[in-house]
Amino acid sequence: MKKVFIKGGTIVNSKESFAGNILIEDEKIAKVSDPDEFIELDNDTKVVDASGKLIFPGFIDAHTHFDLHVAGTVTCDDFYSGTKAAISGGTTTIIDFGTQYKGETLNEGMDNWLNKAKDGVFCDYSIHMSISDWNEEAKRQCRDMMDRGVTTFKIYLTYDILLKDNEAFEVIQRLKEVDAITGVHCENAGLIFALQQEFVEAGLQKKVSSHYKTRPAAAEAEAIGRILHLAEVADSDIIDVHLTCKEGLDEIRAARKRGQKVYAETCPQYLTMTDSLYELPGFEGAKYVIAPPLRKQSDIDELWRAIADGEIQTVSTDHCAFTFEQKKLGKDDFRKIPGGMPGVETRGIVMYSEGVTKCRISVEKMCEVLCENPAKLYGLYDRKGFIKEGFDADIVILNPKGETKITAATQVSRCDYAPLEGKVLSGHIEKVFLRGVEIVDNAKIKDIPEGKFLERKPYRKFL
Q1: Which of 82, 132, 143, 172 is exposed most, by the fewest CB atoms within 10 A?
Q2: Which H/E stretch holds residue 18?
Q3: Alpha helices, DSSP H only, in 123-258?
Q4: What's the CA angle centered on 135, arms 133 and 103, to 5 degrees?
Q5: Each residue's pLDDT tens digit, 227-265
Q6: By CB neighbour count within 10 A (0-12 exposed, 13-18 middle, 19+ buried), where does 167 fall?
């Protein structure tokens, strides 16, 4: 492989940013040097001038749903298109949620998800395993998952794949035994069902706004509090995924005061959009139907403060994209609108523009929540998430003086709408390297999938 020398930029890590050069050789970062240090280069070394640019480790998105069969349809982005969209925005590693459907074993669920990537992926990838059918065989196969490099799991407290409280408790206990950790989708299914029935009986089933009104913040907060108390009794650490609201954050704060280890993830949509979008005329609001739903501006402000203060450890996307036509499956019943939206290709620039340039977070904090913390939490910190000698040469070069306009017409995702349509963001991602190979150059993507499956290490505390 040709060597690459990146010179003149500002290297960003979580603790500091500094001027430096990077030498890449054999897929790895061979050397990080001071700007004035002499480095003898071979004649075939490619030199990249990053003067005036920010150099990040490759971003890690630990929450995607590619090629997911759900709500009577399939997400419009599969592993091929989804990872191509991901790397276009600087994400060099994704961790997708594989699912053990009812009647399947965990091994069968994992085999199915690995098969989905057979047509190629543009970034490195791994899998979490979602448990929906808890039994003795699933309990045994948790060890199989660990042996196959799947060291994180997910359970749901809502939808038709939810686990009962006793099952969730047993899963938490078992995962602690095998050195794993689980993320949890926290919403109170019973409360949501009861509210949905009320709205349908009132003749409000065709109103998109019924979606968010039947999934209040209290439903999320109650479920967070419940799972955290189960984890307290199990003496196990846990992850709350896609946190949306202050009420839920307060439950996490209370658990931490009790001495529990709780990791929190939020998503760009919960940092940029409010529930007023569900009130758009006609069926337009369906584009923003996700679960948990968008919240208030006060929640957005609270989440940004929590990121800055270190209360939220990671920002992932929950990329689960459907076309507008697919959303119309629920035009006569809000409960049937497929829940999810795109975001995997815009996360990095959204965090830079809405976070860093608006002084909500530092550029170092951006690196922490997009790169280093996900690597630590998800068993990748021996090779990903840090610009350090010996680590994979996953590199993002961001021009802070550039601009990025969000449009469906130019996005890589197969989704036919962009939630932030027309928004002009500060900063532009110019180049992306995956293990030393330049995959993205000013929006031009190398059309050869280079991604590899990543076996991950067991969970270890890092806070």
Answers
A1: 143
A2: strand 17-25
A3: 136-147, 165-177, 189-201, 210-213, 217-234, 246-257
A4: 40
A5: 999 999 999 999 999 999 999 999 999 999 999 999 999
A6: middle
